[in-house]
Amino acid sequence: MPASDGTRRAILAGGLAVVAASGASPAQAEGKPMYGLIGQMKAAPGKRDELIAILSAGTEAMPGCLSYIVAKDATDADALWITEVWTDQDSHAGSLKLPSVQAAIAKARPIIAGFGHRFETVPVGGVGLGKA
After folding, report:
1. Which domain holds residue 44?
2. In a domain, 40, yes or no
């Protein structure tokens, strides 16, 4: 279940966090592990808020996405962190083919200055942001 706009405003304050949905999804029932990504992205100077808006828009319709958080880096005014939890790696790969995601990538590309750390994770539990 996708996160609400209010939930997406959650901020990672000085460190990395893995957020996973509680309970087993159909993928876990089949023995597939959840898939997580934590990545740092650098915006062109002064463009971080614009990049956040692009990355946060239209993310509610990503099948298999349990959590998608865009957060400001507390120590770098041009950096942000994206934390994602998916039912499985195939769902994440499929999301990259969605027209809305392709459009967001195209719109964001000119203001992305680079990428920092990137971690793939295997979420095993936690609090699901999409839960009401």
Report:
1. 5-9+31-121
2. yes
Q: What is the pLDDT of residue 31?
A: 72
Helix %, strand %, coil % for the chain, to 5?
Answer: 30, 25, 45
What tokens were used for 41? 């992205």
Q: Which residue has the higher pLDDT, 24 or 127?
A: 127
> If you average pLDDT over residues 48-56, what whole number do you get?
95
Please state whether the predicted TM-score (pTM) of the whole model is above 0.85. no
Element (H, E) at 83: strand 79-86
Helix axes of 48-56 and 99-108: crossing angle, nearest 10 degrees: 170
Q: Go through 1-12 and write b for each residue having 16 or more CB atoms within 10 A of its CB, e for each that does not.
A: ebbeeebbebeb
